[in-house]
Amino acid sequence: MSQLKLMQPSVVKTAYNRIKKYINKTPLLQSETINMKLASKIYFKFEGLQKVGAFKARGAINTLLHLKEQNQLPERIVAYSSGNHAQAVAWAAQQLGIKATIIIPSLASPIKIAATKNYGAEVIITKERQQAEDLAHEKSKDSFLLPPYDHDDVIAGQGTAALEAWEEEGDFDAVFAPCGGGGLISGTYLATQLFSENAKVYATEPQIANDASQSYKTGTISRFTTSPMTIADGTRTLSISERTFQYIKMLHGFYEISEEEIIYWTQWLTHLLKINLEPTSALGMAGAFQWIREGNRNKRILIIVSGGNIDASTYMKIWEKNYLEDIPAL
Amino acid sequence: MSQLKLMQPSVVKTAYNRIKKYINKTPLLQSETINMKLASKIYFKFEGLQKVGAFKARGAINTLLHLKEQNQLPERIVAYSSGNHAQAVAWAAQQLGIKATIIIPSLASPIKIAATKNYGAEVIITKERQQAEDLAHEKSKDSFLLPPYDHDDVIAGQGTAALEAWEEEGDFDAVFAPCGGGGLISGTYLATQLFSENAKVYATEPQIANDASQSYKTGTISRFTTSPMTIADGTRTLSISERTFQYIKMLHGFYEISEEEIIYWTQWLTHLLKINLEPTSALGMAGAFQWIREGNRNKRILIIVSGGNIDASTYMKIWEKNYLEDIPAL
């Protein structure tokens, strides 16, 4: 666990130089329809085309490469996750030729378990999430535990998605990203500071998983006792950490998104951008839409579309009601 | 209606030079997982990112631009379609500043009707498909009727998708495309002749909509009396035409695909490529998979992924059963 200190924005640039030959430079997409209807210029950074199908690859490989630079690359790493972090750690370990043990609660989808094994990791299935976490901490005695967000190198790595977008198409007026444990939004905040003093950075979170938003408003970390069952499964974390809260405090605001809005924008972005995006990834657009409606017209907006890994059962929840009735409804 | 003659492959090159500044150069995608599991190098030409979300834009704009070159651009055009051709003709007319009337049977989805209107076309809804066709022919007395496939410039235009892929990543050993009325596969065949004498070109068609495959086998055009209700709605045409049959006769083979295989590959390509592809677009991969299983290993394969326009109800049909169980099942 790295020491708690506020990092300089330059760590994102350092991370990018470290990881760029391992990762994909993901595309920045636009929809003419959205730009026209919303009188905005919106850029979607599509991390579904990142290694393992999500931004999580960036933070995982950055952490390992930084350890390697310091001659501290461990022989074995361990992680627990039911989501994209599992695959990201397995993939990063494979890149550097080290062993990974990934502990996955049994609620995880078979396809994610298979993908994690496919990267050569040992996979241990536990009944519950808490058991997975406990086992990982036990194993951390002789393995390096790579946490999903509470680590400086993870945060700096996640920020490289926004950095790529700024290098390619800045100057943005506002940047939106989803917030689970806070690694992505913290890195996105830091990356933005490299390029602009004026750009606003907003976090977006499901209404029913609004622990980070509450923490931001009250100044004290708010914590769920059980995982909130939002369709945006990337944001089901119980709380942010002291580390990510340092950056979250400095954001320009939070947008809380209803489950219906998440599904609405998942459908529309799938249809208009022709991409397979997970519901968590629709949060940014939902937040941007509210911001535009507050009167922010003719702005250049960057939205981090975090990933594209979806379970079959989630597709059924996304599409059971049709929101693609009529374009003017946008 | 243009005269029935066999075109030279060079018409595709001419078409491309004519249309390239109007259309998108769509990406050629790969999946490391598919390439590894199938011991092949497969390139997916993703026409979902074409104007209007499907290859149909290519043929429509080529036809109008060719008329314009000959100083025969009409003031008004008409077309009938319940699918991507409707939007393609509306879009092409808008590009050239002429009026379009699109006649759409009421079974078409609201989103496709809205998109067609959005391109500035007049839309007339008829109760049945036959009425749409009849009305279009009636209107063709004082408007140019732009047919979905039975026109030389449409065929040449559709071939430009394969041409782009050949220019970017040839040399392919085999090329696969879906076959509805035959415009896309005919153009794809012609484009391939520009680059290789040896490359095989295969058509793929749903088993329950196998009129073209039957025509190929028997040497006589086979015709359905009612639209076969395959999930691959781009192939619900009743028959190919004499014009497209000229090229279809010269193909190296047909693969007939079950509805389950269509859904299976729609799911896997959505998941692995992170794209929103319509079921018709999964036909090519399903055919290639059979071809590989026949012993064609370590080949370079081009697959035309025809489009990305899907109705909400179709998503429910795609995802009601989960085929993403385990990667080795691939």
| Overall pLDDT level of chain A | 95
- Give me the CATH fold name of the largest domain in chain A: Rossmann fold
Q: What is the second-level CATH architecture of the largest domain in chain A?
A: 3-Layer(aba) Sandwich
Report the helical percentage of chain A.
40-55%
Count every beta strand of chain A, where a strand is a DSSP E run of 2 or more residues. 10
Q: Uncertain regions of chain A: pLDDT < 50 for 5+ in a row?
A: none
**How would you describe the shape of chain A?**
globular
Beta-strand fraction estimate of chain A:
15-25%
Q: What structural category characterises the helix and strand content of chain A?
A: alpha/beta
Output the number of helix runs of chain A. 14
SSE inventory with pairings:
The structure is a homodimer of 330-residue chains.
Chain A: H1 10-19, E1 28-29, H2 32-38, E2 41-46, H3 56-69, E3 76-80, H4 84-96, E4 99-105, H5 110-118, E5 122-126, H6 129-139, E6 144-145, H7 152-158, H8 160-169, E7 174-178, H9 183-195, E8 200-206, H10 211-218, H11 242-248, E9 253-257, H12 259-273, H13 283-293, E10 300-305, H14 312-319
Parallel strand pairs in A: 2-10, 3-4, 3-6, 4-5, 7-8, 7-10, 8-9
Antiparallel strand pairs in A: 1-2
Helix pairs in contact in A: 1-3, 1-7, 1-9, 3-4, 3-7, 4-5, 7-9, 8-9, 9-11
